[in-house]
Amino acid sequence: MAIRLLTPDIALAVSMADASASARANGADHDAEIEIRVRAVTAEAEHFTGRSIINRTYAVTAPGFAGVIPLPSSPLVEVVSLEYLDVDGATQTLSEDAYVIERDIEPGFVALAAGASWPATRAHPQAVILTVICGYGPDETTTPAAFKGFILAKVREYFAPAGTPESPHLIRGLDCLKVHS
């Protein structure tokens, strides 16, 4: 199974105004550096928790149907499609009636519906393609408070005067969001 990011998040997980205030920056002189730092800390938070903050689209590919198809991240916004290469090599879209989406477990998975059977696929490393959107929403207004607090605190630390110690405990504020798979 392989996971590929199709459309990355466009917006930041926190507003530039909030990030600039945390960095104690006046004017736009440091905006590029602040944005890079926000994106880096956001990636750290997402990796630690197993979650996508801002909506993004993923493709999960597999050589065939077998058991369940794990979702790449939490929370799931929508299953866009579940496609497969039939034995003749034609791309088919599996009917939504043929599978169920398990959302009660995180990161969740797609499984065969009761009474259904997986179709036969062509022998190909990417015979099955699950396309999903994961995240909390399209912009910083939907970012959970724990993520915002972590990101802004890390930005504040990064731009603090030289010699200011970093807190090794900030990441613990994300424990409540961590996906345990």
Short description:
This is PhiE125 gp8 family phage protein. By secondary structure, the protein is of the alpha+beta class.
What secondary-structure arrangement, pairings included, does this model have?
Elements: E1 2-7, H1 16-23, H2 31-49, E2 56-62, E3 69-70, E4 76-85, E5 91-93, E6 99-102, E7 109-112, E8 128-134, H3 145-158
Antiparallel strand pairs: 1-2, 2-8, 3-7, 4-5, 4-8, 6-7
Helix pairs in contact: 1-2, 1-3, 2-3
Protein name: PhiE125 gp8 family phage protein
Organism: Massilia violaceinigra
Summarize the structure in words:
The strands form 2 sheets. The protein has a 5-stranded antiparallel beta sheet, with no helix packed on it. The model has no long low-confidence stretch (mean pLDDT 93). The protein folds into 2 domains: 9-50 and 138-177, Orthogonal Bundle (Hypothetical protein yqbg), CATH 1.10.3230; 56-134, no CATH class. With 181 residues, the protein is an alpha+beta fold. Helix content is 23%, strand content 24%.
